[in-house]
Amino acid sequence: MITIEDETLLRRAIGIAAHAVTLGDAPYGSLLTGPDGAILAEAHNTVRRDNDIAAHPELKLARWAARELAPAAAARTTMYTSCQPCTMCAGGIVRSGIGRVVYALSTEQLVELNPQSGDWPTVPQDGPVLFEEARAPIDAYYRPT
Description:
Layout: H1 4-22, E1 29-33, E2 39-44, H2 47-50, H3 57-68, H4 71-74, E3 78-83, H5 87-96, E4 100-105, H6 107-113, H7 131-142
Parallel strand pairs: 3-4
Antiparallel strand pairs: 1-2, 1-3
Helix pairs in contact: 3-5
Organism: Streptomyces avermitilis
Domain CMP/dCMP-type deaminase: 4-121
Protein name: tRNA-specific adenosine deaminase
């Protein structure tokens, strides 16, 4: 359920996205709050500036949370973001332990506004192959003798 407080924090994420545009960066902004609603960290997209395909604000905040917060604390945070996280960012958010995400624009809405946003090719993948060989480092790491 979205609250008035959620809407206020989403507006701040949208404001971060708008500010990013004035800096020449892509129009995406995010922030992370603690359980009391206090802002812990903010970020905007710097993919072009940093020449880093992973410089999405959601992934930056997920990495920050994983690095700076204990798992129990991360689980009580909420990320507010101007657009629905992409699959790369969603994976990082899950791994970081962040407890909740609230977004303004859905991926579908973003693609309607900017069709190029959904123009990603699929990459062929083949596998699994060489199970016994591939399992050796996994076993060595997770089941030391």
